[in-house]
Amino acid sequence: MQHKGMFLFAVCAAVLFAAAAVSGAGPKKTVIVIYSAGIESEKSMSEEDSTIDGKTNATPKKAMNAKMAAYHLAKAFGTLGLAVSVKEALDIKDPGEIMNKDCFVIISPTRFNNMSWEIKKLSDQVFHAIYKKKGKLNGKPASIIATSEIVSSAKDCIGRIGNVIGQCDGKVEQTLILLNETAFSEAEKQVSDFAAAFTASLRN
After folding, report:
1. Distance (Å, rounded) from C-alpha 179 to C-alpha 63?
2. Residues of the chain where predicted confidence (pLDDT) is lower than 50
3. DSSP bridge partners of 31
């Protein structure tokens, strides 16, 4: 009787496992979104152009900064089934906050073709500590978003952050440039599409 009960338990467990595999159920992938909260993040929008040319009223433009992008991205990840945490770069002291996640995203404003000083500090301290650890990031998926006025500068910024991740044995899956001139609604769509693409890459 005991053997029969154990057999039935094993069968039920196998059925449940198969059902979970088919439905994609299981522990949620974990992602940490790291952003640079510099001067630009203290404003809710870019400086408004109040100039009136005498013919049409100027329409104030709202630009998506790093902090806005981080929280919009986190919301998008949440709807896609990921377990998300969001942190300012300067608040991360322990390499485990990155190493213990399944993946991570770094969001930085572009500063003269480079990353922000907050992300640079993260690189010099936290990523340097990761670099010295056995196994490092072990191929952990990552993505990068740069906000900028100029595409070429943003590419340089992304390249430098990508070098840091690569030297720590991480793998950059997706990158996105958010130009300041982009309409806010369009920037939101770009971030949502970016979230979907990155999430899909985790399941391949």
Report:
1. 8
2. 1-24, 41-60
3. 84, 103
pLDDT at position 40: 53
Instruction: Please list, in sequence order, all residues whose beta carbon lies within 8 angstroms of the beta carbon of residue 87, skipping any fewer than 6 positions away.
Output: 32, 33, 34, 35, 97
Radius of gyration of the chain (CA): 21
Query: Domain-by-domain residue ranges, the chain?
Result: 29-43+61-202
Query: How far is the C-alpha of 38 from the C-alpha of 83, rounded, in Å?
Result: 26
Classified by CATH at the fold level, domain 29-43+61-202 comes out as Rossmann fold (3.40.50)
CB 180 within 8 A of CB 194: no
pLDDT (0 to 100) of residue 39: 57
Whether the CA torsion 18, 21, 23, 28 is positive or negative: it is positive
Residue 38 is predicted with a pLDDT of 67
